[in-house]
Amino acid sequence: NPRRTPLIAGNWKMNLDHLQAIAFVQKLAWNLKDANHDFAAVEVAVFPPFTDLRSVQTLVSADKLPLAFGAQDVSAQDSGAYTGEISGAFLAQLECQYVIIGHSERRTLHNETDEQVAAKVTAALKHNLVPLICVGESAEDLATHGPSAVPVAQLRAALAGVTNAADIVVAYEPVWAIGSGQAATPEQAEQVAAALRGVLTETLGQDVADKTRILYGGSVKSGNIAAFMREPNVDGALVGGASLDIPEFSSIIRYHK
Ligand code: PEP
What we know:
- With 257 residues, the protein is an alpha/beta fold.
- The chain has one domain (7-253): Aldolase class I (TIM Barrel, Alpha-Beta Barrel).
- It has helices at 18-34, 53-62, 88-93, 104-109, 114-126, 139-145, 149-158, 186-204, 206-211, 225-229, 246-253; strands at residues 7-11, 43-47, 68-71, 98-101, 130-135, 169-172, 213-217, 236-239.
- An eight-stranded parallel barrel has the order 1-2-3-4-5-6-7-8, surrounded by five helices.
- Helix 1 packs across helix 11.
- The longest helix is centred in the last third of the chain and has 19 residues, at 186-204.
- Residues 11, 173, 178-179, 217-220, 238-242 line the site of phosphoenolpyruvate.
- It comes from Cryobacterium flavum.
- It catalyses: D-glyceraldehyde 3-phosphate = dihydroxyacetone phosphate.
- Keywords: Cytoplasm, Gluconeogenesis, Glycolysis, Isomerase.
């Protein structure tokens, strides 16, 4: 779709300290420049741990690297007595463009609810951060409710507080495919992505739905990315494990070569 620039996003999870992050981002940028990667044609974003963000910001701005970056979570609050939380205002100040919200690891390991996800989406937009909203069903959900029901309900809930046309990204990540080596099929990803675009049309209108990137995530590798990218409603990938390996992540980014 000409209205949507593909986005390949690397979720580092709790990997790479700030020194490792500097070396990694530098090498990744060199590798992609060496390969003449067209950053305007396929956007690249990385999501380091909070403690790396200042270092990544400094490097990206000093070397004018064409990489976007963001955080892996954000507080629903702006400031105050919320020990351990990180405000969207702080992330915006560090020139984060994106923030991941509602990753399945936060929903399961930290019991994040749809309501909390919605509050974080509202907070991100308030601070001019693009929320990268993760939705996806567990294996049990898939068996009980079929492929789209849970991701569709999660996206509706996440957008509950969003009223005006908004800059957002959606990632469809089936929980059973994350870190399992068992990716969804491109057909499965397309089916759910199309349903999610339907939710965007319903809630935010056709225009926003047409320009919103919907990513697939879950065991994406250089060997399967091209097939996902051929699907009309899949506009990129959220990559976990494979985003920590520079040659592999670079091959995923250059999927069209
Ligand atoms: C993720 O954590 O968002 C993810 C998709 O992980 P992986 O690529 O390792 O399955």
